[in-house]
Design a protein that fits this description.
mainly beta
Length: 117
Amino acid sequence: GSGGGVLPIVSGGTWHQPLSGIFVAGCALHGCNGVYGPLIMGIESLRAELPQLAQLANDDSRAYRHHASGWVVAKLLVEPGAADSEWVLIDAEWQVRFHQPVNERRALVPEWGPFWT
């Protein structure tokens, strides 16, 4: 990964709808740990609230902004126009620090530590 340090732990499990927020702990990078939320869901909301991510958003995209640091956890397209999505942890300078592919288990909520690269 491009982040270095200890991989973050994002609470995971089996979910049937998007969470209203996410908690991240165990990351050695400043600004990563803490509460992310509320949920920003859908392409129009992402364009309005996080325009830096608009080119990678689709109707299934969602994002959670850190309560204080400006970091973002988001489910976005791998690249503009792609069919595949990934979960990304983006720092306050808009650099992707960690990512993990979206699959059936990770469609609504990203997995915990070892799945982030």
